Amino acid sequence: MLAPLLFVWPLSIAFTHYFASNVANFPYDQALREHVNAIARQVKLIDGKPVLSLPASVRAVLRADETDSVYFHVVTRDGKLLAGDGELPSPDAGADPAALPGEVYFRDLELKGQDVRVAYSFVADGRMPRDRWVLVEVGETMEKRTQLTNKIVASVILPQFVIIPLAVMLVWFGLSRGLRPLNRLRKTIEARDAADLSPIATHRVPDELEPLVEAFNEMLERMKHNVEVQQRFVADAAHQLRTPLTGLKTQAQFAIREADPAALRHSLRQIAVGVDRAARLVNQLLTLARTEGRETAQQSHTPLDLARLMRQVVGEWVAIALEKRIDLGFEAQEAAMVSGNPLLLQELAKNLIDNALRYTPEDGHVTCRVLATGNMTVLEVEDDGVGITEEQAEMAFERFFRVDNAAGEGSGLGLAIVRETAMQHDATARLRPNPSGQGTIARVVFHSWQPPPTPTPIPDDFSELYRQSPPIGT
Description:
The protein is of the alpha+beta class. It folds into three domains: 2-150, Beta-Lactamase; 207-292, Signal transduction histidine kinase, dimerisation/phosphotransfer (DHp) domain (Helix Hairpins), CATH 1.10.287.130; 302-447, 2-Layer Sandwich (Heat Shock Protein 90), CATH 3.30.565.10. Helices cover 49% and strands 19% of the residues. The chain has ten helices and 14 strands. It has helices at 2-40, 56-63, 143-191, 210-257, 261-292, 306-323, 342-358, 390-395, 414-424, 463-468, and strands spanning 43-46, 49-52, 70-76, 81-84, 104-111, 114-123, 134-141, 302-305, 327-332, 337-340, 365-373, 376-383, 428-433, 440-447. The strands form four sheets. It has a five-stranded antiparallel sheet, covered by helices on one side. Strands 9-11-12-14-13 form a five-stranded mixed sheet. A hairpin with a 4-residue loop joins β3 and β4 (81-84). α6 (306-323) runs parallel beside α7 (342-358). The longest helix is centred in the middle third of the chain and has 49 residues, at 143-191. The radius of gyration is 51 Å and the shape is elongated. It starts with a helix and ends in a 6-residue tail after the last helix.
C-alpha cells in the first residue's frame, strides 16, 4: 500500500501545480483585459484615422505595479507607434485571421529574459480593412502569478506532509487488524495435528474468507473419506487375511512332515485352494477400496446396452455353473440402455452371479434377467438357494456379513461391492426373499439412458414453410 501511495504523491503535486497555475492566471488575466479595454476606449477613429487621448492617470495606473514590469503600446497594423513601449513586439500580421475588433486575446512571449503575459485587442469600425486596424496591447511579467501559484501549491502540499504519514499509519493499522483473522486462521491450521481432518470452524472467520474455508473443509472431507477407506482396507485386509494365511502355514507344515505321497498331494491341494481363496479375497478388497475411494467417479460414463453386457457376463459363468450342476439362465426382452462404466458394471454382475452360485445347491436354478420399464432398467439375479429373511436382507450389503445357514464359502464382500457400484451409478440395490418360497432375488434398478433430442434442421428453402403456414388473419 505504501509504494502506490509514494507513486501517487508526485503526481498529485504535478496536478496541483497545473490547476493552481490556471487559478492564479485567471484574476491577473482579467486585470489585463480591463487595462486593454480601458486603453482601447481612449482610441477614437476620426475619418478612418486613429486619434489617441491617453490621460496621465491611466499611464500612472499601468506603471504603478511594484512587483511586475508592465508594458503597453498602441500601434497601427503598419507598425506606426501611437503610444507606449516600442520594445513590446506586436503579433504577426497574419496571425489570428479570425480575430474580431473589440475582442481581447492573450499570448505568451519572452521579453528581456522574462516571461510576459500579453493581452491585446483591435480597434476598428465595420468599414475599415484589416490593414488599417489599431492594435492595443498590455503585457506584464509573471512574478505575481508565480508567487500566487506557489502559495496555492504550498497550501495544498504542506498539509499532505501531515496527512500522508497519518494515512500510512492508518493503513498499517487497518491492514494489521484486517489480516489478524487470517493470521489466526493460519496459526489454527499450523497447530492442527497431522491426523486431524475435522472441519475448521467458520464462526470467527471474516466473510471474505468463508468461501476459502468452506472449500478447504470440503477438501478435508474428501481426504477424510479417502483416509477412512484406506484405514478400513488395511484393517479388513489384516483381519481377513490372517485366517487364510494361518491355514496356508498349517497346510505347509503338514506337507513338510508328510511322507505319504497321497497325503502330501492332499496338503498341496489344500494349499492351492487356500491360495485361490486368499487371492480372491485380496481382489475383492482392492475392488471395494477402489469403489469406495471414488477413483472411478471421474471416469466418463458412456451409454451401453445392459442386456448385452449381462449376456456376456453370464456366458463367462456357464462353465462354472455346469461344474456345480446348476442351471444358469438369462432372460432379456430388448435392449436396455443405461449410462455407466462397463468395467464396474461387469464387476457388479459377476459378484451377483457368484453370490447366487455359491449359495445355490446342486440341481438348483439361477436366472439372470434384464427388464426395461419406462424410465427404469432393472437387473435381477434370482436363485432357489438357501434364501434370506427380511432382516438379513437389510444387513446383507454390509462388509463380511454372511447368512447363518450359508453352506458355501465366501468373504462377505461381494454384495458390499455391488452396493458401492450401484451408488456410483445413481442406482439402488436390494435383496428380497424369493416369492416362490425358496431362494433370493437380488435387484439393481438403474435410470434408463435417454438420447438427447435431435434439433430440428433449418431448411435452406423457406417456400415449403410458407406453404404450410396459415395465411395471416385466419
